[in-house]
Amino acid sequence: MADTARPDLAAMIVPLGRALMAVEQPVLDAHGLTMWAYAVLLGLEESVRTQSALAQDIGADKTRIIPILDDLQEQGYIERRPDPDDRRARLLSLTPEGRRVRDSTQAAIQAREERLLDRLRPADREGFLNALQFLAALPKEELAGE
Q: What is a single Pfam family found in this protein's UniProt entry (predicted)?
């Protein structure tokens, strides 16, 4: 029997996610980034990735992400070069300026998130963040119950 004492997870997470994205938007605007551009910068972390792998990992269509990559490259935030193992593929990496913008943007976003997290008791905060990180790291197949 379903536990009707709580709303469905999506019913709780989606409105929260939308509200968090609205809080992030002024920070992104101040740094000259779109949400997708920020996702690309975060997706590159410290590693070199192919365009296709990055698009899959951030949930973007690999053809629609090309203008975003073009813009980030034009701004000097990423580098694209041919993959020596597959000339059809392009390898992406962050430039030092891309790292700086990513880190600055993330710090400003997380400072805003702190105001929300500060509403939780320390133990609840730690548990919430641990659970969220665990669930977010699950493979998509596991989330779908496959």
A: MarR_2
Instruction: Give the pair of three-digit tokens for residue 137.
Output: 């790291």
Residues 75 and 32: their CA atoms lie apart, in Å, by 10
CATH code for the structural domain at 28-112: 1.10.10.10
What distances in angstroms separate CA 28 from CA 43, 69, 89, one per listed residue? 16, 16, 29
User: In the chain, where are the structural domains located?
Assistant: 28-112
Segment (H or E) for 79: strand 78-83
pLDDT tens digit string along 66-91?
999 999 999 999 999 988 888 888 89
Amino acid, single-letter form, for residue 31: H
Q: What does the DSSP 8-state code read for residue 121?
A: -
- Among left, alpha and beta (phi > 0; psi -120 to 50; other), residue 131 is alpha
Residue with tokens 């989330």: 143
Confidence of residue 4 (pLDDT cuts 50, 70, 90): confident
